[in-house]
Here is the input.
Amino acid sequence: MELVVALLLSAILTGIVFYSYLLLNNQFRKYSVKSDTVNEYLIFQKALNRDIERCDYFKDTLSQTSILFKMPAEDALISYLWSKQAVIREAGNSIDTFHFKLVGYDPHFIKDDLPFLNKIILTLDIDDIGVRPVFTKHYSAKQLMALEPISNE
Here is the structure.
């Protein structure tokens, strides 16, 4: 009888320990996925900020499904394409994909008659949480003077 009670208690204890392990493992997996998503957003934000700072200008496409960055290097372009499930960054031979949804896109132009942007406000859906980052370009007088001939073409 004592042996049966000991086996029963050890089985109950083993079950409790195993359930605790499964619960802890599940929580760690959820935290890891959330951490990866936040890291991906931070990398996207850093890349877009860096591209805005370094570019001569950036402009909206007519379809408002992408933006183009003209970099100081000869004919170097970087583009960001918006799709329903991802944001795709193309820079030369490099393609980066950021897996979150673009819900809203609000471009702000330097002047109404120019396609060049000085600010964009994005609405992103990251794990069912709405995020609205604002990205701003501060043009120098030299850059603004250089945009006039481009806008007349």
Notes: The mean pLDDT is 87.
